[in-house]
């Protein structure tokens, strides 16, 4: 009986993975990897068997039940199995379902955290998700519910919506319904963490205009305090008197 290590590969380029994640990956005999993980990571486990279990938005997707069964099967056949997930395993990564499948078969595991897309988007735009005095809370949410309906709320100073790229005009309407003022800043970053990341600035009322710019690209939408451009302050330096 083997053991499964869940590794957060980060939201884009291979060098966003943590050192611990890289070390665990190098030990793997089998790697079950997500669609959005950087293929360059294969160089760090060339001896492993790599199995594609990715989900690609509204296109090709490996069913969750099939992934769970494959994880169990591989852990029963190999000592060191890695489940390589984009971003962080615990943020919209269906980690709980896979942990439950392993626990049901008495299979041990470890979880190695990773950089989630919201943090990569904030870094790319130099817009901190929290702000002293104005941004004390952050909410991470998916725009689409499990039932396939679009929802938006105003539950935090900064709201970050994942997997919203194909719903931007509708999301704008939902944000207005939720009570966000029409002039609230919105930042959209697609392919956050990759060299070709694209960022655009909007207001809630004009968010729909971003749809064409980010079409076909995984996008993160940040609304509120965390989407506001940082305002440089003039520094007053005390100089010793002559």
Structure description:
By secondary structure, this protein is α/β, with parallel strands linked by helices. The chain has five helices and ten strands; from the N terminus they run E-H-E-E-H-E-H-E-H-E-E-H-E-E-E. It has helices at 19-26, 64-77, 95-104, 117-125, 168-177, and strands spanning 3-8, 30-33, 49-52, 80-85, 108-112, 138-142, 158-162, 185-190, 198-203, 219-224. It has a five-stranded parallel beta sheet, with helices on both faces. A five-stranded mixed beta sheet has the order 6-7-10-8-9, with helices on one face. The longest helix is centred in the N-terminal third of the chain and has 14 residues, at 64-77. The relative contact order is 0.15.
Characterize this entry briefly.
The protein has 242 residues and is an alpha/beta fold.
Give a quick set of tags describing it:
242 residues, 5-stranded mixed beta sheet, alpha/beta, 21% helix, 22% strand, disordered C terminus
Outline? elongated
Average the pLDDT over all residues and give the rounded result: 91
The run of helices and strands is EHEEHEHEHEEHEEE
The oligomeric state of the chains shown is single chain
Strand content: 15-25%
Q: Which strands sit side by side, in order, in the main sheet?
A: 3-2-4-1-5
Task: Estimate the helix proportion, in percent.
Answer: 10-25%
Major sheet attributes: 5 strands, parallel
The radius of gyration computed from the alpha-carbon positions, rounded to a whole number of angstroms, is 20 Å
Number of strands: 10
How far apart are the termini?
A: 75 Å
Computed structural class: alpha/beta
Q: Which segments are poorly predicted (pLDDT under 50) over 5 or more consecutive residues?
A: 234-242
């Amino acid at each position: 009986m083997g053991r499964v290590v869940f590794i957060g590969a980060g939201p884009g380029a291979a060098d966003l993975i943590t050192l611990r994640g890289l070390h665990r990956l190098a030990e793997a005999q089998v790697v079950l990897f997500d669609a959005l993980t950087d293929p360059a990571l294969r160089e760090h486990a060339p001896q492993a068997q790599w199995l594609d279990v990715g989900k690609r938005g509204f296109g090709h997707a490996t069913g969750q039940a099939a992934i769970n069964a494959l994880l169990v099967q591989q852990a029963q056949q190999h000592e060191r199995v890695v489940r390589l997930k984009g971003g962080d395993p615990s943020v919209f990564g269906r980690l709980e379902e896979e942990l439950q499948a392993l626990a049901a078969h008495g299979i041990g595991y470890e979880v190695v955290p990773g950089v989630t897309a919201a943090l990569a988007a904030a870094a790319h735009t130099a817009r901190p998700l929290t702000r002293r005095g104005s941004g004390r809370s952050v909410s991470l949410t998916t725009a689409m519910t499990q039932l396939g309906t679009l929802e938006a709320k105003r539950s935090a100073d900064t709201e970050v919506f994942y997997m919203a790229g194909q719903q931007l005009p509708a999301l704008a309407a939902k944000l207005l319904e939720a009570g966000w003022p029409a002039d609230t800043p919105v930042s959209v970053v697609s392919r956050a963490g990759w060299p070709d990341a694209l960022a655009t600035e909007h207001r809630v009322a004009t968010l729909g205009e971003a749809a064409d710019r980010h079409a076909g690209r995984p996008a993160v939408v940040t609304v509120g305090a965390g989407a506001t451009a940082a305002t440089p302050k003039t520094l007053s330096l005390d100089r010793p008197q002559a």
